[in-house]
Specification:
alpha/beta, 22 helices, disordered N terminus
């Protein structure tokens, strides 16, 4: 189904069942091999019991030994297939989850992921996705693991009902142990993953600000801040091991009790001639299988970690993607309109009732004190966020109604501290909409070519091997935005340039032969003076619109520039 604003949004599948089902063809393979293994486990005691009776009888035991050897071979083969299928299933599901999580974060934009720390998101995509991917194999293995104890109960009943009764009483105790273990492990697994996410968030924050930390001499304090959660992580890990150890110990006690009970009843039945020695041997093996429910603690632990991972992934999948429309952009000069725009975030009003009609092809400077809403206005114009009330239009079309290609081809945005993405310097400038020729033209227009050509490998220089000043990074950011054909939004994007370069780029912007609309957030008097129009913001409201010369008559306006 589609609407005027594009395809209807479909939430990503984030339930345990949805993640488990993604194993597709691998899950039947895992299930079949697990059931085959269970069948082997159930058949082997009976075959070995017949072997014992054949040895006692003195004939026919060779045939039973051959059958036992075949069963063991089948069990080994099933285990190998199960291990391969489980690994392949987890790998494929992990890749699917990571792709979906990354897509959700990227398509949700800066506002969508605002509530998440970068390090925490990395933790969810890397570690938690891998835990969540265990859902399918763990669920299938758990179901298949029920076959041996149930089958043991049935086969014991066929041998002798009293053996089944002794066995059943012990298995009830094991089930109780597993129930308590599963409930407690689920709580601890989620807490453990959440603490890991906090540590990752703090570490990422510290890595980003290493220069600031070093210059401030706060290295030791940062270490303590990041590692301050280690005791909590240690506590959660210790609780996990305590629960596992307690459940293992309980299962270790109950298991032998089941075996003793079955052997005691079986011994009486053997003495009374109701069962043979081989049947007693088979009964003992079935008792061991039934008590083996305790070995399910490992699989139940995987399910608990998978549930926790899915829950943390679901929080990311809940991010609303930025919806794009279906409309193309009609011909026009780049007229930018803010129609009753208000932006509210966490009860804080960032912009209030903004009405602006900015002519196409003009250079528009946005000025105001810190916190006035300049960057918010710029992000609205570039559609990096949407207003809480009102709408922003480009040549009469609301920005959300434009299709993604039309929007990003028409609008380019550069920032004060650009993040350079890609493998090489050239990648940091180019994108899908432009080729090598336009990349070079953009670099020349923004004077980035002046320093790029001096790099060892020019535009092919790897970004990590191209140390750059703040001004050089800004020039690359400007070059990436430059190919936009209708609107350029520059959010303080020339603040780190030296005076000569800034003057050159300002001249290029002012004399733009493409006559695109240029919305420039600035703190510099000279930039505002060269603009065709100035928008003066104060406290989230438009305080004045006009030329720099006209606004300069107001003393409060002059105070904006110090």
């Amino acid at each position: 189904m589609t609407t005027a604003l594009g395809p209807a949004y479909r939430p990503a599948p984030t339930t345990f069942g949805a993640v488990a089902r993604h194993g597709r063809a691998w899950l039947p393979v895992i299930g079949v091999t697990a059931l085959a293994n269970s069948a082997v486990s159930l058949a082997l005691p009976s075959v070995l019991g017949h072997s014992v009776d054949a040895i006692v009888a003195g004939s026919g035991y060779g045939r039973w030994f051959t059958i036992a050897a075949v069963l063991i071979g089948v069990g080994v083969l099933c285990s190998l297939i199960d291990a391969f299928a489980g690994t392949a299933c987890v790998a494929g599901t992990t890749a699917w989850l990571r792709h979906g999580l990354v897509s959700q974060v990227v398509r949700g934009g800066a506002e969508g992921s605002r509530e998440f720390d970068s390090g925490d998101l990395v933790s969810r995509v890397s570690g938690n996705a891998s835990d969540a991917a265990q859902a399918g194999p763990a669920a299938v293995t758990t179901v298949a693991a029920m076959a041996p104890p149930i089958g043991s109960l049935v086969l014991l009943a066929l041998i002798d009902p009293w053996l089944a009764a002794a066995f059943f009483g012990g298995v009830i105790l094991v089930v109780g142990v597993l129930f308590v273990f599963a409930r407690r492990t689920a709580e601890i697994s989620l807490a453990y993953q959440q603490t890991q996410g906090r540590i990752s968030a703090l570490l990422t924050e510290a890595v980003t600000g290493l220069r600031t930390i070093a210059s401030a001499g706060t290295t030791s304090r940062e270490e303590r801040r990041i590692l301050g959660f280690l005791p909590e992580l240690h506590r959660h890990g210790l609780e996990t091991w305590k629960v596992l150890a307690r459940s293992g110990a309980q299962a270790a006690i109950v298991g032998p009790l089941v075996l003793v009970a079955v052997l005691a009843v079986g011994g009486l039945q053997l003495v009374n001639g109701r069962i043979t020695a081989g049947e007693l041997f088979a009964a003992s093996q079935y008792a061991v299988l039934g008590a083996g429910l305790g070995s399910l603690t490992g699989v139940i632990g995987e399910i608990a970690r998978a549930r926790a991972g899915i829950q943390r992934a679901a929080e990311v999948f809940a991010i609303d993607k930025v919806a794009h429309g279906l409309l193309p952009l009609p011909p026009g000069p780049g007229r930018l309109t803010f129609d009753g725009v208000t932006v509210v975030v966490d009860d804080a009003v960032l912009l209030e009732n903004v009405h602006l009609d900015l002519p196409g092809g003009a250079t528009v400077a946005v000025v105001g004190p810190s916190g006035a809403g300049k960057s918010v206005l710029a992000s609205l114009a570039a559609r990096l966020r949407d207003p809480s009330v009102g709408q922003v239009l480009l040549d009469g079309v609301p920005l959300p109604a434009l299709n993604h290609h039309a929007l990003r081809t028409a609008v380019g945005c550069a920032f004060e501290r650009p993040t350079l993405v890609g493998t090489t310097v050239g990648d940091a400038i180019s994108h899908d909409a432009i080729g090598p020729v336009r990349t070079l033209a953009a670099a020349r227009a923004t004077h980035a070519h002046d320093f790029v050509r001096r790099l060892p490998d020019g535009y092919f220089t790897p970004l990590p091997k191209a140390p750059m000043s703040g001004g050089e990074r800004q020039r690359l950011g400007l070059a990436r935005a430059w190919p936009a054909n209708r609107l350029l939004v520059l959010d303080d994007a020339t603040s780190s340039l030296d005076t000569a370069t800034e003057l050159q780029i300002s001249k290029t912007l002012t004399e733009d032969r493409y006559r695109r609309t240029r919305l420039i957030v600035t703190h510099r008097t000279a930039t505002a003076a060269r603009a065709d129009l100035v928008v003066w913001l104060d406290g989230g409201r438009v305080r004045g619109v006009g030329t720099h010369q006209d606004l300069w008559q107001d003393a409060s306006y002059r105070e904006v520039f110090g």
